[in-house]
């Protein structure tokens, strides 16, 4: 195996009122990571940082209104609570417009991975990656469906590189959307350039779409509704893993 499979149920599809039990259930069923979707409002972020006309304009043009995504989920306090109940790798995907503001609190809360969006970190990604590492987390970069894959190359090749690229296979914001097969061109390009990189796919992954993703070269698989909605979630986790294993070239 060149890269190992990491199956990461998206806790966005879990019962939030029973998060600790849901996390344990997933780990017991064979999950490698727990994927945590962090989405916050732009409003709270801009009060924490600089409120400029530019950022207002930029965000209204790029991010349909005042949020990076049109949904609200969890933040560092929930990660901190969950961390008391599990030692699992918490794969945190920050769908926020100012990831720098969250590095310290996410590190202290016990996040394992900190994946930010390239669309909002074009200027300061080097400092961001350094801070993520010194806060004890593994840095990753995510890209939305409309973002060209070339935009993440400098982050993978930098002096302090990211350790994972997350290719969104739906528009970020909600679980239960349809997988976008044309995103596999990005995965293929990344795998060809970086044979040992962790490449994650997120959105619409399940038994009917895993083959396309695994064949393209994805090894970290986020799956929400296909796992939590299955009568036997353990079988889905194991099928996802087998598909990745089968598709990987042997070293
Ligand atoms: O980040 C997101 C949505 O923004 C994902 O993590 C979803 O939670 C994946 O859910 P499914 O598409 O697998 O239901």
The percent of residues in helical segments reads 25-40%
Whole-angstrom Rg: 17 Å
Question: What number of structural domains do the residues give?
Answer: 1
Distance between the termini: 5 Å
Q: What is the tally of helical segments?
A: 11
* Order of SSEs: EHEHHHEHEHEHEHEHEHH
Beta-strand percentage? 15-25%
Task: Give the ligands present.
Answer: 5-O-phosphono-D-xylulose
CATH fold assignment = TIM Barrel
EC number: 5.1.3.1
Protein name: Ribulose-phosphate 3-epimerase
Cofactor: a divalent metal cation; Fe(2+); Mn(2+); Co(2+)
GO molecular function: D-ribulose-phosphate 3-epimerase activity; metal ion binding
Q: What would you say this structure looks like, in words?
A:
- The chain has one domain: TIM Barrel, CATH 3.20.20.70.
- The longest helix has 15 residues, at 233-247.
- It has helices at 19-28, 42-48, 53-62, 76-83, 103-109, 125-134, 153-157, 184-193, 210-216, 225-228, 233-247, and strands spanning 6-9, 33-39, 89-95, 113-117, 138-143, 164-168, 198-202, 220-223.
- It contains eleven helices and eight strands.
- With 251 residues, it is of the alpha/beta class.
- Helix 5 (103-109) links the parallel strand 3 (89-95) and strand 4 (113-117).
- Helix 8 packs parallel to helix 9 (210-216) and helix 9 packs parallel to helix 11 (233-247).
- It has an eight-stranded parallel beta sheet.
- Mean pLDDT is 90; it is low at 42-56 and 62-66.
- The chain binds 5-O-phosphono-D-xylulose (5SP).
């Amino acid at each position: 195996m060149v890269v190992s499979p990491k199956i990461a149920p998206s806790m966005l599809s879990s019962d939030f009122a029973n998060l600790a039990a849901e996390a344990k259930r997933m780990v017991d069923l064979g999950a490698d990571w727990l994927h945590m979707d962090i989405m916050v409002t732009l409003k709270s972020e801009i009060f924490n940082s600089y409120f400029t006309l530019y950022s207002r304009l930029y965000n209204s043009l790029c991010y349909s209104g005042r949020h990076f995504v049109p949904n609200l989920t969890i933040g560092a306090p929930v990660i901190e609570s969950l961390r008391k109940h599990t030692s699992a790798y918490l794969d945190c995907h920050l769908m926020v417009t100012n990831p720098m503001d969250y590095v310290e609190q996410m590190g202290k809360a016990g996040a394992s991975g900190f994946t930010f969006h390239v669309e909002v970190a074009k200027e300061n990604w080097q400092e961001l990656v350094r801070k993520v590492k010194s806060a004890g987390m593994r840095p990753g970069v995510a890209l939305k469906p409309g973002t060209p894959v070339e935009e993440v190359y400098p982050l993978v090749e930098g002096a302090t590189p990211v350790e994972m690229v997350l290719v969104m296979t739906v528009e970020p914001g909600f679980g239960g959307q349809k997988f976008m097969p044309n995103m596999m061109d990005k995965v293929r390009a990344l795998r060809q350039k970086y044979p040992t990189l962790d490449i994650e796919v997120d959105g619409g992954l399940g038994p009917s779409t895993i083959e396309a993703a695994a064949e393209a070269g994805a090894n970290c698989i986020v799956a929400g509704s296909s796992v939590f909605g299955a009568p036997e979630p353990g079988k889905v986790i194991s099928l996802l893993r087998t598909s990745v294993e089968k598709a990987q070239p042997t070293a």
